[in-house]
Amino acid sequence: MIERLPIFFHSSAPSSKILHIQQTLVVGIDIAKRTHYACIVDDRGRVLQKSFSVPQAGNGFELFYQRVLAAMKEHEKSEVIVGIEPTGHYWLNLAYFLEERGIPLVMVNPMHVKRSKELDDNLPTKHDRKDALVIARLVKDGRFSYPRILKGMEAELRVGSTFRSKLTEELGAVKNMIIRWLDRYFPEFVQVFPSFGKM
């Protein structure tokens, strides 16, 4: 049986969010296509485990979960919260995995991550290991929001709607390309076929 971990109450103010992060293990994850990087800090922002890799796969997530449980036990923390900076769709597999195990997932604003990392070493450089720590500290400060993870029919409708929008966009691009080619190489075409637009 999967051990369920406590879930936080939702609130919008950073100050009320901070109140929930006491005796809490805070995990910041920088999301990537194949390998995420995670960093574990305590509720005061002290690094408990330096950044480590988390493969984007079921066994990678399972090892990450076991590592989180071990860190909770080692540092005598009763709760855990995982924060991410959303990157495309790559975070969704991890989100569903964590939800199944009762681990709360929160998101930090990418602009906050960009600005905050300059405070640590005055360098705005992009680095996955560095970003994981910045994300964890933003979560510790209550600067996060709660994602709405869609399931079932709602998730399918969202995917279908997104796919339809993409197809409509691509269709418009192809039509414009054909019109450009005709205008350039065969401008008489519309005189020969006046209903071309309808076709």
Describe the structure.
The protein is of the alpha/beta class. It has 2 domains: 14-140, Nucleotidyltransferase, domain 5, CATH 3.30.420; 152-192. It is 48% helix and 17% strand. The protein contains 7 helices and 5 strands. A 5-stranded mixed β-sheet has the order 3-2-1-4-5. Helix 4 (110-121) crosses helix 5. The longest helix has 34 residues, at 152-185. It is elongated, with a radius of gyration of 23 Å. The model is unreliable at 5-9 (pLDDT under 50).
What do we call the CATH topology of the largest domain?
A: Nucleotidyltransferase, domain 5
- Specify Rg, calculated over alpha carbons: 23 Å
Low-confidence segments, given as residue ranges, are 5-9
**Structural class of the helix and strand makeup?**
alpha/beta
Superfamily (CATH H level) name of the largest domain: YqgF/RNase H-like domain
Count the E strands: 5
Overall outline: elongated
Number of structural domains: 2
Can you give the helix content as a percent range?
A: 40-55%
Mean pLDDT: 83
Distance, first to last CA: 60 Å
Q: Using the coordinates above, name the CATH class of the largest domain.
A: Alpha Beta
Number of helices: 7
Biggest sheet details: 5 strands, mixed
**CATH second-level architecture of the largest domain:** 2-Layer Sandwich
Strand content: 15-25%
